[in-house]
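stuck on whats below:

***
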Amino acid sequence: MQLIKIFTIKKPIVKMKMVENNRLVVIDEENGIRVFNLEELKLESGLKINLPKNRIFGNGVDVANNGEYLALTIEGKNKIVLWNIKNKTLFKVIGWHKGEIESVAFDKKDRYVATGGTDGRTHLWNINTGKMVGSLAPHSDYVTAIAFTNNSLWCATGSYDKSISITNISSMKFAYKLKIHLAMVTKIKFIPNFRMISGDKEGHLVCSNYAKGNVIKRLPKLREMIVDFCFDINYKYMFASAKNRTVVLYSLETYEILREEFITTNSTITSLEFIPELFYLVIGTVDGIIYIYDLLADEKELDRLIDEKNYSEAYKLINENPLLKESISYSHLEKIWEHTLNQAQKLLENSQKESAEKILKSFMGVPSKRMFIQSLFKDFAEFEKFKQLVLKGKYPLAYSLANKYPSFKETKYYKHMEKEFKKVFAIARQLMFDKSKEEYIKKILMPFRGVSEKTSLIQSLLNEKDIYKLMKQRMAKKDFKGFFELVNRYPFLANLEEYKKTLEFGEKIKAEAEKNLKEGNYNKVLQYVSILDNFPIFAKELETLRKKATILANFMKLLANKEYDKVYEYVKKEPFLEEIDSFKELEEEWNRKIEEAELYSSKGDVKRVLESLKHYLKIKEKLPKIGQLVKSAYLYQLLEKLKTEVDDEVIERGFKNYIKIFGLDLEVSDLITLAEKSGRKLNFRNLEEGDKINWYKKELPYDIFS
């Protein structure tokens, strides 16, 4: 990697985020906002917002993914400000928390902003209206971190109470509360395959499956609080930093540390960001310095080292920067090694040891290759003996030596033995049912008698003729199940060409099944699977294929029949269905309706909320979301009425009607407190309390005061 640019802004950096067109938005402690063009490596624009200082290591700042809006918490306040970065103007002030807001995050589609507070609550806000559209499951302590999945279907909230709550945003249904940390959660991010990485105050990092609610792997911990982490474009690597000066490189394939000190800066790191298109890693620090590293800049150096045949330094460079393994140059280097190794083996076969040593010399400085090379030369010290055994037809001794020195199995002499055995065995099989040829068969197979790996085959040919007949019959009938049962009983059959060809046929069928699965031909997949039922060797893959194809076939049938209630239940049970195009289209239609309904909700228009979502009222999975919007509409009716001089009894009736439907929840409790603080005299004796789960079973008034 190479440090290609340093920007100094002199104020501690709080947040960095890559937005559209390779722009980097940077926010400092004093609410200075700068937009950098990373392609041209220059400052593009900036502004200063007159607000109290930000917490350097908190999550109180976020930038919309399109780079248009900035969300800022305000110290000591229960509100946030939404700032239009492009126009440099205040866009909205929003909030509904009892205490200070600790964390804020935009969803990936820039529809919502979520706020987490010291009251343990998380509210979801529509960016355009600035109105609350729902509340997530509360924590028992501060909400310290918030994150959304790339498809904006899921939201995770982390807390000072050490737990993480997972909520499906599309339905607003609480899914899991994960208690996987031993300290305050400081950072959460989602990655593909339903994985979530979370870090805590004591330096622990955990990878979990957010759809199933289980831990996948606990990563090697860091020494201090996890400050930030980010990922490469293919999610093979993770760059992480604790509250120190070092970036640690993790593998997301093994979940192990690849480089403990991948990059070290001059001051404490506060923020990390990976720029996919440019393969840059951007590091922000507490002393206000932004470091930009080109992670593949070393590829030019790698090319130079390869051209100079300085392979030891080339591999040393790769060890220092494992990301070079993703480069074309690395692939080229590995091909050179394979070609050189093949050449050396051929030279050794021809007793040209010095020439072999000469061409391998350039790889002797590479520790991993040196061990292999030393082993190769050690093996070939006995090669002349092996060669003479082959030439003299002493195959049992030759095979024994080859087993001792595996390198010999790549030589032409070993391949000659194998070819010879294949030839005589094929002749023997043709003649095996002719009793007059028994002595001849024994004669041509004699050189291979005593070869351990051939003994069972030779004996079977002489003594198990009935088994061969039976195998031939089953193959003629394409009775693959019977064939594999036979192989299971008589393992020597696995060494025959018939077995290899049958496996190749099975692999071909499996490949066709997998191809059709990708193409959405689920019934065809099941047809292929029915053929593979006769191949027990594929049982594990078969189970996966059948299950997935069956699920998808049933799913598509439900969609075709417009049984949407069952569709969403199915998706809840099988989360991978979220990525199916047909489901995405269904969700897009739902989101269009939700946007419409959220607008009506912000105006307190219950009637239009219900009218716009009437087709979804029969879908159980969507009822919590609809209920949240109806709740919000009533809450805004109450809030607006509290601003007027209407009689207390009207206000009281509104509150009682709300509680009758949704119960005495946290949001209405806030409004009751507000009403009482303003001097309202309210009497809540003989309350009939409903609940948020069964709200749809009640006859809803359009006006909460009626």
